[in-house]
Amino acid sequence: MKKAILQAGGTLLVMMFLCGFLYTVLVTGVGQALFPRQANGSVIEVDGKTYGSELLAQQFTDPAHLWGRPMNLDVSSFTDEDGQPVMYAWASNKTPAGKELDALIQERVSALQEADPVMAGVPVPVDLVTVSGSGLDPEISPEAAEYQVHRVAQARSIPEEEVRSAIEACTTGRLLGIFGEPRVNVLKVNLMLDGILEA
Length: 199
Hints:
Layout: H1 2-34, H2 36-39, E1 43-46, E2 49-53, E3 72-79, E4 85-90, H3 99-115, E5 139-140, H4 142-147, H5 149-156, H6 160-169, E6 171-172, E7 183-185, H7 186-193
Helix pairs in contact: 5-6, 6-7
């Protein structure tokens, strides 16, 4: 019995060292050495100022900016190191068969059409009126970005081609040419349009 306890205890200590310490140090070290930007959150930083992560959505409501997917935001009672309230987002979990989701989608469609009446007759891409599974999807489809080109160009008094150029520069294609769908990073496009990020 004593021998079995010692063997089990020894195995536990060895596995704790291997899995809890050595593996963590190895993976962290490799990540920092080979992929430091990704390992640290793919943060967009320009001239020492942080603008966010390209992996997390930010809510844009200004007509001069590209809008991402709708977000369910909750301002928590917690604050960051600068004293700013921390915001959380999550998926809506509303059933597609329910009237509540239909009403919400109609409300979002109306808001988009009101923001740009010229596009009132054009079908609204689904990702502009539905929340993503994580609630924090930073990307939209090229169709959703194109839908907003007229509004953004008009709000900024710039040619539509300038907006399309920024969208194209921030579009990622299918993985290996076959997996997934093309997608546009909303934060990158807006930073490029604001002259903060270069193509």
